[in-house]
Design a protein that fits this description.
The complex is a heterotrimer of chains A (about 550), B (about 350) and C (about 180). Chain A is α/β, with parallel strands linked by helices and about 550 residues long. Chain A is built from 15 helices and 17 strands. The radius of gyration of chain B is 21 Å and the shape is globular. The chains are: A alpha/beta (about 550), B mainly alpha (about 350), C mainly alpha (about 180). The structure holds iron/sulfur cluster (2 copies).
């Protein structure tokens, strides 16, 4: 038996999992429309690869990954692209983002896939490319592009941790996935192991999921896998946090800002392993996932859902009850309230909880902190939440950072135990995003200063050069003058103000532009030689490039 | 959904429940108190509670803070009880009122109210009273059977509110100094510990009767620890420190220094360890800080009791250590997850 | 009495000497205060403070010639930072200088005549273009100073407020009324 480690703190909220894990996974029906956001992952938003009115097939690429840290987005079924516009999506800001709306044609017709019968024949970069093309991202909630996490580092990565702990109350999607599709999860894990060249795979599952544990163990035996161990870990929230699970299984503590691979571990969700297998073996892009639908419904259960399915259409399959006020995506501890009930399911949607007053009573009024340290006792990051709260509340961000604000994993354990009902995590989120904004501002100010100083020095230099040139010219002129002293000057230099000539030029340009605007066909585009046409095209392309540069986002929030 | 954020669930525990539990835990001690010293203490408890609630409401009103949620949090009541328990039960009614009012208004609300007061309000109230009205604060009731006469409940009421005793009864006949006080005075008069402890006011371990009250508080404290309302660190560290220091002095010179058990079971040591030091607002929040705090309080209690001018050192020890809390907290911040040691 | 006086003056002289020595020994070259103030200013270089740029304003503040409440782009936060840095009281914005929401300039490309005047005005070289060519503004570099707006002879430059989007959105300060039990 492996020696398990412990992490500090943790809480035991009621798990509420029994409601939804009694029945097998059900395929959800084809919805009436799909709203597929282009930004479902960490990193840059994908760029639309289709046009409105275009017919697409199931699995067809509709959003291209942009840059290194990004991921592709695919059509979840065959149908017609109805819109590419900003819509409400499943995010915490509640602000609209670019989405592709797809109206299914009902045929659910697959695009031709590129299966791989024996992935051992593929090179590692081929495998990673396949994952990237399939848009596989972490399904545990972080939605980090998986190919980016599957690079072997200089350090030897000894352990691959598969996270099947699922510590959040209510959620059972990983539980059901492990019960029903254990063999495929293990195959996916094998691919990951090969890519990372790790020795061992440790699969951590909380001990409140005995069926999943035995299913996974049986699959390990059946597949005769070497070096895979299924480990029951104690049920404690947030035991399924990547850092906490790594700590429990290996004893290694991954501090904030440290890459776990540098300490010899990498961690993936079991769902990601499953999608990895589907993507490599069958070439299937990530267009569906398992979602737990629970809360204020009479048949809580798990569905296999197409990405983009409107949440209310999905919840309708679970016989919703009256009194639902909003949906929560994720669990009650770290979940996000949805800005609308119609937002589409995204890759990060592991669970939808229909929230009613009865299930989640409105928060009690908050009292001042009484420094009881129940929060510090519960904090898995071993922080002093009461101090952080104090500083965040006073907007004393420097101090908050000194007290390790960025080590907070926002698990909410502190808010859960606080007898004063203080929304502690809310203060930390606020402080973090303020600090990020300040950093971005500071960065912008620094570049501005640099550019300004550069410009000043450039102007200075130009002035100097001009003066030097002028001096040289004058010297030459006076030399010539001494030669031709007898001859009278042929030209009287008119005293023209350079400003005036500029004004004149501008005026002509304005007139010219006005004339152009007046003419119906301003460009003589009819009789162009091919050479001229090419020139024009080139200029147009350049303009487009410049325009793109100009539209580049002001600041990127990759830290988030 | 603006206004709703995770986590959506919270543990069903509130400040008012915590405080209520602490008050519950005081009841065994109070019951024993009544058994040995008569029901007068119940009067001061009631008086203090009423004063605390009205002053609290008034202060909240003045500051324009919502009254109901704060009144319901039970913290003012707890302060009142702790203060009432440290005042002689037969003290005139205005003493209780003044002390409580001062504790709630000045030392709690003027410092920002719940959660912001640097000093334990009950102990501030006590300190103010013992400095301003030292005579009234030393007339403790004799335990039943020890005094020449014992008063009936009505007589006690009369004395508290009107200052009149039944005809022919002198105050000295029904009151006396506390065991700690007596010890100090007698030692001053060159008495020896052994002889002094043979006086009738002493029982098995410490003061007759009062040692049992202390035991009652110990029982309540154990209940609080078992229910995880308070952590064991503070009381254990405090009592251990007191025990060890008293033990060292006792070993060196048993004729002048009483046993460590005497110290644990007399005065405010027990109630202080479990109910006063553990006030979350005024104690450190870090684990190391709690040890330091309790150690300092234990040391100071002993020093003040043995060498200082006041009979009991608990209150002043607490207040002195309260001053140090921000400093202790700042210097004892624990290492966080993953940053404990530099890995190679 | 005399000895006490002597001792006191002796101590005073000794301490004075130490201070004087320290002042010479630890003297800092240049004026670090200007750089410190400049670091706090938002570097929009807009001149709304009445000085030709952030650095000149910083210098003026350091020399006590300018108030700390003259920089609208820095916002109240900026004033607060300056107040903290200089150890003076916070001063709210006076009459004209009122902060506006952050914005970037945008050239209407169909109207641009390529006169290059805006390029010359831009303090941070955020405009690309050449004579008689369409000009455009690199939004990421634009500080929103508005200096390019007045020189444009055809008025084709407008300021576009930066709207809150999912990318630049921030968590709000939690407001929970104490009495909010519904
Ligand atoms: S749990 Fe709440 S009341 Fe207790 S110390 Fe933490 S923040 Fe303060
Ligand atoms: S939310 Fe942050 S501070 Fe609170 S318990 Fe979790 S890690 Fe600790």
């Amino acid at each position: 038996m492996r020696k398990l480690h412990q992490f500090h703190g943790g809480i035991h909220p009621p798990t509420n999992k029994a409601q939804s894990n009694q029945t097998p996974i059900v395929q959800a029906n084809l919805p009436s429309k799909l709203t597929i956001p282009l930004h479902q992952h960490v990193g840059n938003s994908a760029v639309p690869a289709v046009e409105i009115g275009q017919h697409v097939l199931k699995g067809q690429l509709i959003g291209c990954a942009e840059g290194n840290l990004s991921s592709s987005v695919h059509a979840s079924t065959s149908g017609m692209i109805a819109a590419i516009d900003k819509q409400l999506v499943a995010n915490s800001s509640g602000l609209p983002e670019l989405c592709i709306t797809l109206i299914p044609d009902g045929r659910d017709e697959w695009i031709e896939l590129d299966p791989c019968l024996d992935w051992l024949e593929c090179t590692h970069s081929e495998l990673r490319l396949k994952l990237r093309k399939a848009g596989v991202v972490g399904l545990g909630g972080a939605v980090f592009p998986s190919d980016m996490k599957l690079h072997a580092s200089q350090q030897k990565i000894k352990t691959l941790v598969l996270n099947g702990a699922e510590c959040e109350p209510y959620i059972t999607c990983d539980d059901l996935l492990m019960r029903e599709r254990a063999a495929e999860i293990l195959e996916g894990a094998q691919i990951m192991r090969a890519l990372l060249s790790t020795e061992e795979i440790l699969i951590g599952i909380e001990d409140n999921k005995p069926e999943a544990i035995s299913a996974m163990r049986a699959a390990v035996l059946e597949g005769k896998y070497q070096g895979i161990e299924v480990i029951a870990v104690p049920t404690v929230y947030p035991g399924g946090g990547a850092k906490q699970l790594i700590r429990v299984l290996t004893g290694i503590e991954v501090a904030a800002g440290v890459r776990s691979t540098n300490l010899g571990v990498q961690c993936f969700n079991v769902g990601t392993a499953y999608s990895t297998w589907r993507a490599i073996r069958f070439g299937e892009p990530l267009i569906s996932r398992i979602v737990t639908v629970t809360g204020n419904v009479s048949h809580p259960q798990n569905f296999e859902v197409l990405i983009g399915t409107p949440m209310d259409e999905l919840v309708a399959h679970a016989a919703p009850l009256n009194g639902t006020r909003y949906y929560i995506m994720g669990g009650p501890m770290m979940g996000v309230p949805m800005p609308s009930m119609q937002v589409g399911v995204i890759k990060a949607t592991n669970c939808i909880i229909a929230a009613s007053k009865e299930i989640f009573p409105p928060a009690q009024p908050a009292l001042p902190c009484i420094r009881c340290t129940r929060c510090a006792d519960a904090c898995p990051a071993e922080l002093q939440p009461q101090e952080l709260y104090w500083f965040a509340k006073a907007k004393n961000f420097d101090k908050a950072e000194d007290y390790h604000l960025f080590d907070c994993i926002e698990c909410g354990a502190c808010s859960y135990v606080c007898p004063s009902n203080i929304p502690l995590v809310q203060y930390y989120r606020f402080a973090k995003s303020e600090i990020w904004a300040q950093e971005a501002n500071q960065k912008a100010a620094d570049t501005a200063r640099e550019r300004h100083e550069f410009r000043e020095s450039r102007i200075e230099r130009e002035k100097r050069e001009k003066a030097e040139k002028l001096a040289a010219k004058e010297k030459a002129a006076s030399a010539a003058k001494t030669q031709r002293t007898e001859q009278p000057p042929t030209l009287v230099k008119t005293d023209v103000n350079p400003e005036d000539t500029l004004q004149l030029k501008i005026q002509t340009a304005i007139d010219h532009a006005k004339e152009q605007a007046a003419a119906i066909k301003p460009l003589n585009t009819e009789q162009l030689t091919p050479a001229q046409q090419a020139q024009i095209d080139e200029i147009e392309a350049q303009r487009a490039r410049i325009r793109e540069m100009a539209l580049a986002p002001v600041a990127d929030h990759t830290k988030g | 959904m603006p206004g709703f954020f995770s986590p959506f669930i919270t543990k069903p525990v509130s400040v008012s429940q915590i405080m209520l539990n602490v008050m519950l835990a005081l009841i065994p001690g109070i019951a024993i108190y009544v058994w040995y010293f008569g029901p007068a203490i119940l009067i001061s408890l009631t008086l203090a509670s009423l004063t605390a609630l009205s002053v609290e409401a008034l202060m909240l009103k003045i500051q324009n803070k919502p009254i109901a949620p704060f009144l319901k949090d039970n913290t003012a009541l707890l302060t009142a009880w702790l203060l009432a328990l440290s005042i002689p039960p037969l003290a005139p009614w205005w003493l209780v009122v003044v002390g409580t009012a001062f504790a709630i208004s000045i030392s709690k609300h003027l410092y920002g109210g719940l959660g912001n007061n640097p000093f334990n309000p009950a102990m501030i109230g006590y300190a103010v009273l013992i400095i301003s009205f030292p005579v009234h604060m030393t007339h403790w009731l004799s335990p039943n059977g020890l005094g020449a006469i014992s008063l009936s409940f009505m007589d006690q009421l009369n004395y508290i509110f009107q200052g009149t005793l039944p005809a022919g009864v002198k105050l000295d006949a029904i009151t006396m100094a506390t065991p700690l006080d007596t010890l100090k005075t007698q030692l001053h008069l060159n008495g020896q510990v052994k002889e002094i402890l043979d006086m009738p006011i002493y029982g098995r371990l410490a003061g007759h009767g009062s040692e049992w009250v202390a035991a009652g508080f110990l029982l309540g404290g154990i209940y609080l620890i078992a229910k995880r309302i308070i952590s064991w660190h503070l009381p254990v560290a405090y009592l251990t420190t007191l025990f060890i220091i008293a033990g060292i002095f006792h070993l060196i010179d048993p004729t002048h220094y009483v046993t460590p058990m005497f110290h644990l079971f007399s005065g405010a040591a027990m109630i202080g360890a479990f109910f006063i030091l553990t006030d979350p607002v005024t104690s450190p929040t870090t684990p190391k800080g709690k040890w330091l705090f309790a150690f300092g309080a234990g040391l100071l209690t002993y020093l003040i009791r043995t060498f200082g001018g006041f009979p009991d050192g608990m209150a002043f020890a607490t207040l002195l250590m309260n001053i140090c809390v921000p400093l202790i907290d700042a210097y004892t911040q624990p290492k966080v997850f993953g940053k404990k040691e530099k890995r190679s | 009495m005399l000895s006490a006086l002597l001792a006191m003056s002796g101590i005073a002289i000794a301490l004075g000497a130490v201070l004087g020595f320290a002042a010479i020994k630890f003297r800092v070259e240049g004026n670090p205060l200007v750089d410190k103030i400049d670091a706090v200013l938002p570097q929009t270089q807009c001149g709304q403070c009445g000085f030709p740029g952030c650095k000149p304003y910083a210098t003026a503040i350091a020399e006590g010639e300018a108030d700390i409440n003259k920089c609208p782009p820095g916002g109240e936060e900026g004033i607060q930072k300056l107040a903290n840095l200089l150890g003076v009281d916070f001063k709210p914005f006076g009459g004209e200088s009122i902060p506006k929401p952050k914005a970037v300039a945008l050239i209407d490309e169909s109207n641009c005549i390529g006169c290059t005047l805006c390029i010359q005005a831009c303090p941070v070289d955020a405009i690309v273009g050449a004579a008689k060519q369409m000009h455009t503004i690199i939004a990421a570099e634009c500080t929103g100073c508005e200096l390019c707006v007045p020189p444009c002879p055809v008025d084709c430059i407008t300021m576009q407020a930066i709207e809150e989007s999912a990318a630049n959105w921030k968590w709000k300060y939690p407001v929970y009324a104490l009495t909010a039990s519904k």
